[in-house]
Amino acid sequence: MRATVVVPVLKSRSRGGQTESASTRTPESRLDEATGLAQAIDLDVVNASIVSVNDPRPATLLGTGKIEEIKNQLDERDSGLVIVDHPLTPVQQRNLEKEWNAKVIDRTGLILEIFGRRASTKEGTLQVDLAHLNYQKGRLVRSWTHLERQRGGGGFMGGPGETQIEADRRLLQDRIIKLERELEQVVRTRQLHRAKRRKVPHPIVALVGYTNAGKSTLFNRITGAGVLAEDMLFATLDPTLRRMKLPHGRTVILSDTVGFISDLPTHLVAAFRATLEEVLEADLILHVRDMSDLDNQAQSADVLRILNDLGIDEAEGQRRILEVWNKIDRLEPESHDAIVQKASGTQNVIAVSAISGEGVDRLMDEISRRLSGVMTETTITLPVDKLALLPWLYDHAVVDSREDNEDGSVTLDLRLSETEAAELERRIGNGPKPAKEDWER
To answer: How crowded is residue 302: how many other Cβ atoms within 10 Å of its Cβ?
Structure first.
């Protein structure tokens, strides 16, 4: 479908009477992002423009002159879809569709459309459907005014019944309630999975970041997984978890989450809360940033804002968040060297290229260091009847040396955290007796 992208730039008055943009982002970066969002669902963007709005109109948002100008452009380019990169009220959307004789969707509607196409699991589909229904519920504005009221009651005594729009709203609400119940089951299932993961003490590392920052590419580079990774916005939607081994042999779980975006619709934040809560469970959060994007500072602020909404404030972030400055391979040599040097001198920052692999080894070492905790060195000898513990030891400790003895026992020089040392003592039998399921693991 041939589409036109319109980015309204609203102005706000400062105290000195000067006009200044109400958004912290540059209009050009907003235009590029809106065009990228449209292209992410295979729309043919034939025209894209920035529109200054000094006095937003309640009925149409834009002024009459600009509406007429865009209408002429639509006719010239035979465009039947207009994407307005700004929230539109139901009335504004309806009025603009009448003026332009074209389908109009706002930023929220576009993101919902992308998420609807990307969702591949049952959970993702439920979340998108719920968000879409909540969005659509408020947009049944005069859609059925050509229909008469349905008669209510019985016989000839019944008065006017509900209008078609009221019937549709009731049907939508019934569907929303059903989806919410199904999602409650999803939440319970996720909680069970988390509880099981807690029993197996593998640390969790979560990847977060602005959409198209390269999270999935980095995920594939580290784990060798085949997650879809393309140069497009929201290439992946459903979260993916994989086990991986750190350089010193410790096993961790890496989680790739949905990308964030500025002005993320509240419907989506609410619907995807069960998914985003995976981040809250993480022992370490890797905040992936696209350093080749000139707007990366504003993107970072948006990510941190969403994390704060989830309950990870600035103080918590200092302890749990490691910034990963990605896509340094796209930078010019001078900028590349400056970014790498700045990252090496900044706490909680690692510069990498997920494509070339530059800096990934340093990242893995830093993850290992962050998750190692206080390491304890010890030497143990496992008798023959305890050799079933060997797989657990190789998963949870750093084995510096191993000696297979003539009597079948094994002597190991180990380094492991205090928590895992206590767990080892328990499993060997010097502590509380482990449950049968622990031995089977």
So the answer is: 18
